[in-house]
Amino acid sequence: MHSRILKSAMILACMIGLSACETMNLPQVTLPDVFSGNAGHKVALADGLEFTLPTAPWDEDETIDVAQQVEATWNNQTQSGTATFQGRINIQPDRARIVLIDDLGRRAVEIDWTAKQIIIQNANWFPQEFDTKRLLADIVMTYWPLDAVEDALPDNMSVHEGFGERTIRLDDTGRKYATIEHPIKDVWQGQAILKNQQFNYRIKINSIRTGN
């Protein structure tokens, strides 16, 4: 009973949040950050490390539609903190859309990704510790098929997948860049945890499919 109530609450919250993004003019949002796909979608993971997002957002026949609960925690040399969000992801071969809503119902992040360009809008109060482009790369590392992640990584990084876990390493030192735990049967149903050792943050995501 509790799980059904939680599922209904997550879906309702995310759908309300997504609707609000589409219909409300929210003043606390910066101008869109747009980067073109003409030369590939490049995301800086760290100095000298670039992650090349797939030009086409999704190379699968299946349409993905999920509601999520997201908890981000960070602890670097200057500060630490925790933030929670409701999320909604809709992915089709020609377009991926990601929306994060905070606990007050305010839009925190909206990402609209097509083969032509990626448009990112962040609220002014969204934690600066989280680069939204890198957050998008984290989502791809966590949920996209292994071969897509391999193609996206630079030559001096590699990904290895075991029983419900992915490990991304810096090949020149062998150090871990990130480790990812995800559901084995269906990555879009259940809890995934990404731990970024490079920047000392963690993202915990609980997902529920909402599509048919």
From TrEMBL:
InterPro entries: DUF3261. Residues 1-20 form the signal peptide. Keywords: Signal. It comes from the Bacteria. It holds the Pfam family DUF3261. This is DUF3261 domain-containing protein. It comes from Thalassospira indica.
